[in-house]
Amino acid sequence: MSRRFRGYLPVVVDVETGGFDSAGDALLEVAAVTLRIDDEGRLHPAESFIEHVIPFEGANLDPKALEFTGIDPWNPLRGAKPEKQALSDLFAPIRAAVKASGCKRAILVGHNAFFDLGFLNAAVARCNYKRNPFHPFSTFDTVTLAGLAFGQTVLARAVMAAGIDWDAAQAHGALYDAEKTAELFCHIVNQWHALDTPRPWLEADESPD
Prior knowledge:
Layout: E1 8-17, E2 27-37, E3 43-52, H1 63-69, H2 83-100, E4 105-110, H3 113-127, E5 134-141, H4 142-150, H5 155-161, H6 174-194
Helix pairs in contact: 4-6
């Protein structure tokens, strides 16, 4: 894995939020799926993690966004945590996976990855969190990859085009969407791996810049 992506461990992330503005809208859910590589060089989802987040003080909660996600931010059964605690609990196993894989850092994989990374980075900045395992701006975006591989950019359509099961009733929950995005990413990477293409990572032994 450390050679496959130049020392970066892909970690799939999905967030559910109170709107589209990462600076002002609440982060409500954040899920992550780590990946593993088998002896033949194929990727597979490994472990899944989910954190429910208490809206930060002064956060905006757009009623349309809440209707779309179905999240009640104040439902005590959510088991939500303050942002800093949620980040700490989410990042700890990701840092462990980075270390175990021999990688230097995690790189975010997302469907419209800039959105997920934007909310993650905004929460990290608000909390002054110092041990963020993710690269601050580089990502793998499954919108682009699925557009190339299947001519589809909507997550549900891309997943189904890849022959992966999709349950619309579970969609728009961070954990479900992250797990389906992970399956999609692995499928596309493995599809490429199956082609007769050069594989320089099998020979090179370089550290990332």
